[in-house]
Specification:
By secondary structure, the chain is mainly beta. It has strands at residues 3-15, 18-33, 36-43, 48-54, 59-64, 69-73, 78-85, 88-103, 108-118, 121-134.
């Protein structure tokens, strides 16, 4: 059964220019099926939504809106991603270093560490942490 949750997203990324952090809060839905989860939430600033499907073995994060992408995270593997923005399409690769998934009956956390590469060159090192708990914004 889907449950309404408050979702917090924190992206910590490091480039040659330094460290930057993007934090956001969303209202969304949480669904757990055995060792997998699905989080769905609207992203008003992107005029769309995001959906995370995750397990300890891997995850997919789909964004639809002004910015669109389907990122697949598989520890130890590199996957191709088309990051589509209003300005155009940017092909890139994601090298997933690790995934940590903590699921409880009402709350949890998903964390993925990964590198972003464009044309074979690493452009950033990233840690994305998404948490959820009962409640609303």
């Amino acid at each position: 059964m889907k449950k309404p949750v408050k979702i917090t997203s924190c992206l910590n990324y490091t480039t040659e220019s330094g460290v930057d952090i993007i934090e956001s809060e969303f209202q969304g839905m949480y669904l757990r099926a055995e060792d997998r989860l699905m989080l769905c939430y609207d992203e008003p600033d992107n005029e769309g939504y995001s959906r995370l499907i995750a397990s300890a073995e891997g995850a997919t994060l789909r964004r639809k809106g002004q910015v669109r992408s389907l990122m697949e995270f598989l520890p130890g593997h590199t996957t191709a991603v088309d990051y589509i923005m209003p300005e155009g399409r940017m092909p890139m690769q994601i090298l997933t270093h690790s995934i940590d998934l903590q699921m409880h009956s009402q709350h949890g956390a998903f964390e993925v560490a990964y590198s972003v590469m464009v044309a074979g060159e690493t452009t950033s090192e990233n840690i994305l942490r998404i948490t959820w708990k009962p409640g609303s914004l």
